[in-house]
Specification:
Length: about 70
């Protein structure tokens, strides 16, 4: 069974000395395939929360991939 959540689009950002900068827009599966770096943050998969600027950690993002 294909996990439809894997196709949710999110923005990946890197937190640096000069603030947060977008790395790219990708689906959740692609984001989780990136190397594990503590400076990366991910917009919330819920579009309303993402528009509000809510970001999640890699661990939280992986939790959204779990089938319920």
């Amino acid at each position: 069974m294909e996990n439809k959540r894997a196709n949710c689009i999110i923005e990946v950002s890197v937190d640096g000395a000069n603030g947060r900068h977008a790395v790219g827009i990708m689906n959740m599966r692609q984001a989780l395939d990136l190397p594990e770096m503590p400076s990366l943050s991910y917009t919330h998969p819920d579009p309303v929360k993402a528009a509000a600027g809510i970001v999640v950690s890699r661990k939280e993002l992986a939790g959204f991939m779990v089938c319920r």
